[in-house]
Amino acid sequence: MNSLRIRIGVLGLALLTGFSAPTAASAAEAAPSATVEERRLDRAVPQEILRRSGFDTVAPRFARALAEARSYAQARRAVVREGTELWRRAVDRAQGRGPAGGDVSRDDDRPLYWARLGMTREVRVWEPEFGLTDGQRAALLDVLERTSRGQTGIGYSHGKGLKRILVTGFDPFTLDRDIRISNPSGATALALDGTVIETADGPARIETAVFPVRWQDFTQGTVERTLRPYLPEVDLFTTVSQGRVGRFDVERTNGAWRGGFADNDTIGRTETIPVTDPASQPQWTTTTLPYRAIVAADTGRFPVYDNTGVTEIPAGGTEPVVRPEGPTPGSTARAGGGGDYLSNEIAYRATLLRDRLGLHDRLPGGHVHTPVLQFGAGNTTEVTDPEFVRNRLDIIAQVRTILRVAAEES
Q1: In degrees rounded to 5, what are phi and psi of residue 334?
Q2: CATH number for the segment(s) 163-409
Q3: Cα Rg, the chain, nearest whole Å
Q4: Which of 68, 94, 184, 205 is deepest in the core (most CB within 10 A)?
Q5: pLDDT tens digits, 333-370
C-alpha cells in the first residue's frame, strides 16, 4: 500500500527505549495480522478505487490519529470520531454534498468499503506504546465497524405525521471472483440515508445501515443489536441485498439454515442459524411487506417478483426438496426464498426479531433482493463504465419507489 504507515512496532520501540527486543520468532508469533478481507486492499483495483474517489486519504489520516493517542480512552475517541466521519463522508458524497472527490461515480459504495478496511487494518496491527489488550483491540474494532456502517447514527424525528422507514444494505462480496464488484444494496443505503420520500399519506424519513458479509459478525448478534432499539418505533423496515440478474425479488419466506458459502474472510458455515433461545426458534419466518402491492406497482425498469420458493426437508424426510409455493408443515429449512447465505440470514434474523418483539401484526418488514449490478458488455478490467453507473442508479431509484409503495400500503 502507498499510504504512510505511522506506527511504532515492537522492534522500533525497543530501539527508542533501550528495552531488549524480542527475538524475530517470538515477535512474529505475537504480532497481530491483517484478515483475509483486509489483505485484498493491496491489490491494484482497491487502490485505484480509493485513489479515484479521493478516499485514499482516509487510512493515513486515521493512522495519524491513532499514533497521537496516549491512552486507550484517547484511542477510542479517535476511532469513534473517524469512523463516524467516514460514514458521513460516504453518505454526503452519495447524495451530492461536498466535493465528488475524483472520477468514480458519487453513488459508488466501494470507496466506503475499501476505506473502512484500511482503517480496521490499522487498528488490527497497531502496537501503541501504552499497550493494548486483546479485549481493548476487539472493542476498538467493534466501535469502528458500527460507526463507519451507520449503525450508531440511526435516529428519527418524532414529529407528527412523519413515517419512519429503516433500510439495511451489505458490503460487496465474492471479491475473489471479481474484485471490482459493487453491492447495489450498500449503494442504496448511502443514497437514501437521512432522506425523506413523499407518500400519499405524507412524508417518510429513511434511515439506513450497512452490514458485513461475514458469518462471525452475524453469530455475534450484530443484526439484532443494531435493529432491536428501532423496530418498535418504525413504520416499515426492509433488509436489502443483491440477488439475481435482471430482477427484483420480494422474499416471501426466510429459512433457519446456513448453506456454507464462503464469506469475505473465505470462511463458510453449514448449520442452523444460531440465535438466542434456540428452543423457541422457528424453521421459517415470513415477510409482512405488502408484496402484492409492490409487485403490481410500476416501480422501475426491472421486473419485481413475489418469490415464494424454498428448499426444505419435509417432515419425516431426509433429503432436501424444492418447494415453489413455500414450506410444508413441520419441514426443516435448507434455503429460504433468498437462499442460504447472509441475505437469507439477515432477513430471517430481522423478521424473527420483529416477531419476538410482538410486532408481527403491526410492523411491515421483510427482504428485498435487487438485481445483480453488472458492468457493461465487454468490460472485464475497468473499475467503472457508463452502463455500470446507469444500472446502479436505476436500482437505487427503484428501491426508493418500492419503499414509497410499501409505505403507502402499510
Answers
A1: -130, -15
A2: 3.40.630.20
A3: 22
A4: 184
A5: 999 999 999 999 999 999 999 999 999 999 999 999 99
